[in-house]
Amino acid sequence: MAAGAVDAPRVRFRPPAWSGALRRAAPLLPAVAVVALLAVPAPPAGDGSAGSGSVADAASAVLVLHCLVRVLRSRARPLTRTAALLLGLPVLGVTAASLTAHDPAATLPGLARYLQIFVLVPGALLLLIRDRRDFRLVAGSVVVLALAQGAIGVAQFLTGTGASYQGEDIRAVGTFGPTDVMGMATVVAYGLIISVGYALGGGTGAPRGQRALALGCAALLCVPLLLSFSRGAWIATAVALALQLALSGLRRAVVVTLTAAALGVVLVGGLGIGSQMITERFDSIARVADAPDQSVTDRYTMWAAATDMWRERPVTGVGLKGFPAYRDHHASLALSAASDTAGAGMGFQRQPLLSPHNMYLLVLSEQGLLGIVAFAGSWAGLLVCAVRGLRGSRRSGTGAECGLVVTGLLAWQLVDFGYADIGGPSTVLTAVMLGLAAWWALSRRRHRSGGPMAYGDGAAPAARGGAGTA
After folding, report:
1. pLDDT digits over 400-456, tens only?
2. Helix locations, 1-80, DSSP H
3. CA quadruple 356, 357, 360, 366: dihedral positive or negative?
4. Among 55, 150, 350, 375, which residue's Cβ finds the most Cβ atoms within 10 Å?
């Protein structure tokens, strides 16, 4: 180089801040896609696509494949023994019920569905979520979906374009249509419980304004939940919120209860948002035993039929997808066999009753004692581990919001399973919820704050034994 030459200054390229955030969130994008695609309207019944799965189901398959590739590349033991046991228990029941069915080939769609909802998708999320920031990303996407579906539901009520209810097209169902009236209610209830969990558990290290934003989202989601006219969702949500409040402390529970009561008076009493119909729907909850309507009568009849099926084959049940085939043989004449659906862009049609609308009785009738013990053991184990993790997080002062969210979601699902079962496009969101619960209950990394130096963000881990070890 010639004397006196001056080296040209080196220009360092600095990527924009958003590219780093996107790169870090990339492993969770398939999970966010599963949630986002639930906003795609359900295909109309009778067009040949109903019952063949949704785009969200296809995205969940991509999620599982994405997780499998990452696990194979890392060459690490993916699950602890406890996680493998709790996620593997449902496999025992569904496999036995498939092998002992009269037509094992006919049970394959049911086997795939059970594995998708209770094993594969939850296991994928357990492995993909690295810290509380990842948890917040997936949970936040559920809240955004709930707000969008809730807004559509409120518009349906106000404009008379919802599903048919008492002769009027006012029932809020979002994009799920009248054939899945529990779809919007489930999504909105999940979003409400997540929002309340973050409002109650926001502590040290929480983003600024998190509590206020979470409270605002919770207040907004109360409206579409009421307008769904879903008694099962109301009951399950009340139980879940009561549990979250009890675990967050007595003083806070009293304040939030009084605030919620005041909000309910304003929404229903002051503004008159469906007050008469909502009141009648609430009153009908107390009359389900004395003066049940036809929907409740059908449910009781199907419950009795499911119990009879279990008595016929107590160990392994009648086989997956066997309830419709055995229903008429065990049901009484009180069963109407189908429900009337209309509205929300669809004409009148009869929707066949192909399940007992009770997850516990569905598993008992189709999988017998072996199946119900396996599923109940898995769900109970998740709940116990989640509560234990919540207690540990309260002692350490980190992660309480995630524990409250998961405990509330599990409580909601276990109560709602007494009134509903898996089925419909919204079912894949149950798998996402179980994945969040599995990460909190079974992962050793749940107390990570998700800060910029948390291991898994691309930063090198601290030296072993050092004070900075995660």
Report:
1. 889 999 999 999 999 999 988 888 888 999 999 999 999 999 986 655 554 433 333
2. 17-25, 29-36, 55-74
3. positive
4. 150
